[in-house]
Design a protein that fits this description.
By secondary structure, the protein is mostly beta strands. The protein is built from no helices and 9 strands.
Length: 201
Amino acid sequence: MPTTRCPRRPRPTTSGTTTASIGADLVVVSVTGPTTPVAPGQVISVLEATKNQGSAATPGSSVTRFYWSTNSTYDAADTPLAYRSVEPLAAGATSGPASTVMTVPMVGSGGMYYIIARADADQSVSETLENNNTRATAVRILADLIVASLVGPSAAVAPGQTLSINGHHCEPRDVGDGRPDGDPLLLVDGPRAERFGCPAS
């Protein structure tokens, strides 16, 4: 009986491609501001480190800039504070931590603010990822209070006479007397400065 052979079917083959991004990628890996409350106009130092986490070296130097913001996300409305130059970085290399001096803006009210560090802020380096350049640190500003009113005697007074003065301002700052920051004090200035607890508002 004759044997019948079936033709061989071709085996399916598979193929695919993998895309790998090759280039520099600058990020801010750490940023640290003052740990105690600051005042408007105060000069402060901020520690920051910028890293090239990409697979290729940066072709030249870059700039990391610092901004003052009401939130932790950078946008064009944030106030520029300072900057530092970052040397060319090999793949995986880090510049810093480095200290940069800047001045707290004259903001109108106390509260929580943010200093944002932005790597390659001038976009001088072509990166594999351009939306991961920022990192923020929180900074607290205490309210700047003034004397709202002061009323003294309307008639003439004599030396040594006890006076009654209606007026105060509450200053929520550490004045070195052991009270914690934010504990209000009533400050009465004169030949003898006195400090009392602020009355409840």
